[in-house]
Write a structure and sequence with these properties.
Helix content: 55-70%
Radius of gyration: 47 Å
Number of helices: 11
Shape: rod-shaped
Largest sheet: 9 strands, mixed
Distance between the termini: 72 Å
Strand content: 5-15%
Structural class: alpha+beta
C-alpha cells in the first residue's frame, strides 16, 4: 500500500486554521485582505521571506512563524484573498493604546502593511485578565458608548466592541479572559474574529445587490409592457419575440455579473450564523448583545441579497414563460395558415380535376370530329351505288358510336397510365 498524494494535505487542512494558545494579556492584530491573482506570488514571497529558517507549515495556503522575539504570526490564503494575524506577547496596555511605544509590534505592523491587497477588515484585539482590567482600558478609548456591544461568550469570557473603524484604520475588540482555560479562550476568540471577518465579506454583496435593483425595476417594467403588447393582437410577433430575447439576454447578463458575489454572500452568511451559534452568546445587562447587533444589521442585509438573487431568477423565469406563450401563439398561427393553405390547395385540385374532365370530354368530341372528317373524305372515293346508302347518311349513323368509342378508348388509356405510375 502507498499513501494517496493528497492524504497528508487533507489531514493537515483540519489542523491549520487553529490559533496558537493565547497568553494573557495579549495584543492581537488581524487583517483580512482581498488579493488579486497577479499579487498572489509577491504576497507569498513576502510571507516566506519572514519565515525562512523558522517554523513553517508546509502547505501552500498556510504559513506561520515569528517576526521577532515578541511577535509571531499566522497567514492563510483563502478563496477570496488572505488573512494575516499578529500575536504580540509580552505586551502592556500602553503598547496597545500607542503601538509606536512598542517598537517590536510597531515594526511588525509596518512590515504587514507593505503586503499587497485591499483591506476588507482590520482589527486590534486586547485580551485582558478580567473585567476590571479591561474596563480600565475602555475608559481610555474613544468608543461610541451609545453603540457599545458587550456579551458573554459562554460562562466566563466577555467581549466589548462598537464595531466601528477608528482613526488608525483598525476596529477595536476587548476581551476579558476571567480565568477561562487558555485553549477555550483561543478557540472562542478565533470564532469571534471569524464571525466579524465573514460578516464583512458577506456584506460585500449588499452594494452589488443595491446597484441591481434599478436594473431589475427597469426589466420588470419592460416585461410588463411586453405582456400587455402580447395581449394586443395587432402587435407583430417577430418584433415581440426579438424584444423578449433582448430582455432575457439582459437578465442573463445581470445574473452572470452578480452570481459569484451573491453565492459567496450566501456562503459567508451561513458561516456567520454557525459561528454565532458556536459562541454561545449571552447578554449582559445594560449593553446591546452581539446577537441583537447581528439580527438588527446583518440579517436584513443578507435578506436583501437573497431577495435580489431570487428576483433575478423570478424575472428570468417569467420572461421565459412569456416567450413560451408567444412561441405557442406563433406556432398556432402557423398551423392555422398551413390549414388554410391545404384547404386552398384542395379546392384548386378539385377545380383542376373538373376542368380535366371537361377537357377530356371536349377532346373526345374533337377527336371524333377529325375521325369522321377523314372517314367522309374516304367515302368520296366510293360510288354511292356500291354501299347502297348515301355517304351523308352513313356518316350520320356513325357519329354516336364513334364518339362513344373514342371516349371509351381515351378513358381506358388514362386508367392504364394511372395504374402504371402508381408506386408499388
Amino acid at each position: 500500500m502507498r499513501d494517496h498524494e493528497l492524504r497528508r494535505r487533507a489531514v493537515g487542512e483540519m489542523h491549520l486554521r487553529r490559533w496558537p494558545v493565547l497568553p494573557v494579556p495579549c495584543h492581537i492584530v488581524q487583517w483580512v485582505l482581498a488579493v488579486d491573482d497577479d499579487e498572489r506570488e509577491s504576497e507569498l514571497a513576502a510571507i516566506e521571506a519572514m519565515t525562512v529558517g523558522k517554523d513553517v507549515v508546509g502547505n501552500p495556503s498556510h504559513r506561520e512563524g515569528r517576526i521577532n522575539e515578541s511577535v509571531s504570526f499566522t497567514w492563510e490564503r483563502q478563496s477570496e484573498g488572505s488573512s494575516l494575524t499578529l500575536f504580540a506577547s509580552p505586551c502592556d496596555e500602553d503598547g496597545f493604546l500607542d503601538v509606536q511605544s512598542d517598537r517590536r509590534i510597531a515594526a511588525a505592523i509596518v512590515w504587514a502593511q507593505t503586503l499587497p491587497g485591499q483591506i476588507i477588515r482590520s482589527t486590534r484585539v486586547w485580551v485582558g485578565e478580567d473585567d476590571a482590567s479591561v474596563t480600565h482600558l475602555l475608559d481610555r478609548q474613544s468608543l461610541n458608548r451609545d453603540e457599545l456591544i458587550s456579551s458573554m461568550l459562554g460562562e466566563t469570557v466577555r467581549i466589548w466592541s462598537d464595531f466601528r473603524i477608528m482613526d488608525d484604520g483598525f476596529g477595536r475588540l476587548f476581551v476579558a479572559a476571567n480565568g477561562a482555560d487558555r485553549r477555550d479562550l483561543s478557540r472562542q476568540l478565533q470564532r469571534m474574529q471569524e464571525l466579524g471577518n465573514y460578516r464583512n465579506k458577506a456584506l460585500l454583496g449588499l452594494p452589488v445587490a443595491r446597484e441591481c435593483w434599478p436594473k431589475l425595476d427597469a426589466a420588470e417594467a419592460r416585461l410588463r409592457e411586453l405582456a400587455n403588447r402580447i395581449a394586443d393582437s395587432d402587435a407583430r410577433d417577430d418584433s415581440l419575440l426579438e424584444q423578449l430575447s433582448g430582455l432575457a439576454l439582459d437578465l442573463a447578463s445581470v445574473s452572470t455579473a452578480i452570481s459569484f458575489r451573491m453565492d459567496a454572500t450566501r456562503a459567508y452568511g451561513q458561516i456567520v450564523e454557525e459561528r454565532l451559534e458556536q459562541l454561545d452568546v449571552r447578554p449582559v445587562e445594560g449593553f446591546a448583545s452581539l446577537v441583537d447587533f447581528t439580527q438588527r444589521r446583518f440579517r436584513p442585509a443578507m435578506n436583501t441579497c437573497l431577495a435580489t438573487n431570487e428576483r433575478v431568477e423570478r424575472l428570468g423565469s417569467r420572461t421565459e414563460q412569456l416567450a413560451s406563450i408567444l412561441r405557442a401563439r406563433i406556432d398556432t398561427r402557423i398551423e392555422n395558415q398551413n390549414a388554410e393553405l391545404l384547404r386552398s390547395m384542395e379546392q384548386s385540385i378539385s377545380m383542376q380535376a373538373r376542368l380535366q374532365q371537361l377537357v377530356e370530354g371536349l377532346s373526345a368530341v374533337a377527336l371524333s370530329y377529325y375521325v369522321l372528317s377523314l372517314l367522309k373524305y374516304a367515302l368520296y372515293a366510293v360510288p354511292d351505288t356500291a354501299l347502297g346508302i348515301s355517304d351523308d347518311l352513313l356518316i350520320g349513323l356513325l357519329v354516336v358510336p364513334l364518339v362513344l368509342g373514342v371516349w371509351w378508348t381515351m378513358h381506358m388509356l388514362k386508367d392504364r397510365l394511372i395504374k402504371t405510375t402508381k408506386p408499388k
